[in-house]
What we know:
Blueprint: H1 2-15, E1 21-29, E2 36-44, H2 78-112, H3 135-145, H4 148-158, H5 168-183, E3 187-199, E4 207-210, E5 215-216, E6 221-223, E7 228-236, H6 242-250, E8 259-263, H7 269-278, E9 283-287, E10 302-304, E11 337-340, H8 343-350, E12 374-379, E13 382-395, E14 400-410, H9 418-441, E15 448-455, H10 463-471, H11 473-479, E16 480-485, E17 495-500, H12 505-514, H13 520-527, H14 531-534, H15 545-551, E18 556-562, H16 578-585, H17 589-609, H18 618-641, H19 653-674, H20 681-697, H21 722-733, H22 741-763
Parallel strand pairs: 6-10, 7-8, 8-9, 9-11, 14-15, 14-16, 16-18
Antiparallel strand pairs: 1-2, 3-13, 4-5, 4-12, 7-12, 13-15, 17-18
Helix pairs in contact: 1-2, 3-9, 3-17, 4-9, 4-17, 5-9, 9-17, 18-19, 18-21, 19-22, 20-22, 21-22
Amino acid sequence: EAVMEQARSTISKIFNGEPHTYTRFNLTQNMEGDTSQVEMKLSTDADEEAVENGMGDHRHHHGTNGRPYMVQKMQRTPRNLCYMVCGVLLIFIIGFLIGYLTNKKKEQAPVCASSISIENNDIPHETGAAPLMDWDDVTKLLTEKFSAAKLEKVLSEFAQGSHRAGSLEDESLANRVLQRFKDSSMKTWTDEHFIKVQDPPAAGYNKIVFKNGTEDRPRGFLSYSVVGSVQGAVLYAHYGEDDDFRVLQDKNINMNGRVMLIRDGKISFAEKVANAARMNASAVLIYRDPNDYNIKEETELYGHVHMGSGDPYTPGFPSFNHTQFPPAESSGLPKILAQTITLRVAKKILSQLGGPRSPERWTGFNKLGDETDIITVEVNNVLTEKKIHNVFGVIKGFVDPDRYVVIGAQRDAWGPGYAASTVGTSVLVELARAISDMVKNGGFKPRRSIVFASWSAGEYGNIGATEWLEGYLSSLSMKAFSYINLDGIVTGLNGFKVAASPLMHTLIENTLKEVKIRDASLYKQFAKDNFESNILEPMRMDSAAYPFLAFSGIPSMSFRFSPDNSNYNHFGTMEDTVANLNAATSSQVPQLAATAGRFAGHIALRLVHDHLLQMDVMKYYKVVRSYVYKINGRVKDVLQMQPQLLPKSLTVQWLISAIGSYSRAAQSLQNDIQNSDLEDIEMCRLINDRIMAVERNFLSHYVSPRQSPFRHILVGSGPHTLKALTKHLESLKTNNPEANAELFLNEFALATWTIQGCANSLAGDIWSLDNEI
Length: 773
């Protein structure tokens, strides 16, 4: 009985009494979720017992308190041995269970660590199923972190008198932007490119001589002009748009070899020169008319005339140092001379022109020019190689870090470039700091990543941005779902304009209503149902957002505060200074820039916060339907007026069926969105990928990026676009010699299949495709 009592006492002490050993769990959790450890420590209050089976009489005292656990030598009887074996076996089983459970917890810790409570303080964890922060709280946090007062200091720091691409000043500014990104604890990197640009002559000069008069030597220039000297008769061509040259053609004016005098505005320098070259002109002179711009008569103009984007000597591929290709040139390089002139020189020429009178709607001077109005143009620009740096920082997402929105700004400028680049660069780095602070200290956890990019060589045709796109196109087209451009976002006080992919229109309109604009009248304007007519504008080819959209198929946007919906006077000049921008904005630059930054920030945060991307795929259906309506009507006109040019069997039914397929696929996607489970991360990702593919699939697969870099059939440039097809039908209707029926039929078929292919991709799985076409 004494032995039994002792065994019971021992077992009791193991569970309830003074334990022989104890287990202490020390849970150490890595808050970032990379490594979570469960540490188990075993310690004893006594030394280990030595139990000997019948090997003499021994007493063992254990522990610092001197209390014995086994003080009697057990007698060697079968019954006693049985009790002892049972006790040891029981202790072994208990120890095994403790070790097993402890080890299991240790293995599961990295997965379950977020659910472990330490001292009853539960730690919230983003599972990916839903964002922890309400959207209203996100916007309030951005307003708190991003303010005009903080932005004003950055504007002062980044303002420089000169930072032309590839210069020491540009490199110094790049290092400061990089350091800002590092200070915000972002992962940073740089992209180095070796590019070819054309600069004004270092030793000589360019010159203009009108009617053997005084020689003018402009300091301004147009990069990528043909170099040489030509002589021809001046012809005034208004803005140099297609319609302007059509007016001159209707007047039966000979344009061969003429030197076209064209005013700045409406379209890019490159488009003006390309249009003039198609008319067989020998040169183009560009000036700023006082009806469009309020500038000094001696103000010099700077720009480029590459009908494309990026380094024209590496067309379609990046200008990395290790790139080894035979010499190549972009098809967008001009074939004729191009030069800017001051308003003073333009007035001298225009006042002496003879010839026919200008059309009544062409404001300005009265005469177009005569064959005797001879002018000599000499361009001696030099081709140079420069090293440029793009600078990047990223805030990584918590659910889909490999999907990202890109926010970018041009860093270089011809001169001070305060509106052109300083404001955008300042907003870029300050927005990066604010959103980083939201993540580090505000509890905000974006589902997707945000990439901040500072580009160089923007003034030469968005070279930095385009070379990056060309270098990583295959990756970016699958992962970058939007680009937000911060160039020129503040140029005036009273107007506001947005140019964007139709996919983003609904998101932009909703965001404008969320962001309280400083001017109450503007806020009322945004709240009305006139968004498309009063706010939206076409995206210009010289915008950095254009290659993202038309070359890479990434939904993109540009926006700006403008002076009464007109032009800013000082872009492309040496007078884009702090003082002149303050004069244009009543010294409200920090306030306007802060509002513009919050607007861009709201767009970006919405895109990385929501489960599903807020892209309206039905907007493109309306755009395509509008083109199809025009094409259908013009095909009927051609078949009626020029029946010999097109086959009688030609029908637009296939095109109509294609847009029908797109409409059904878009509606099916909307149904999938409405019926989706937002807790299902994989389903959300699949739906988002279908949305992201829409813009990319509007890129024509049937044209070369070298010959037609802007392959988008709706917003791109070239004969493959629906806009070009519409114009081609107009030429066929009038039996224009430039029209080519065979080319039209080929482009028409390829455009139709591009739309059908986009519809197929939008539909999703191969078994969901519409085979009606």
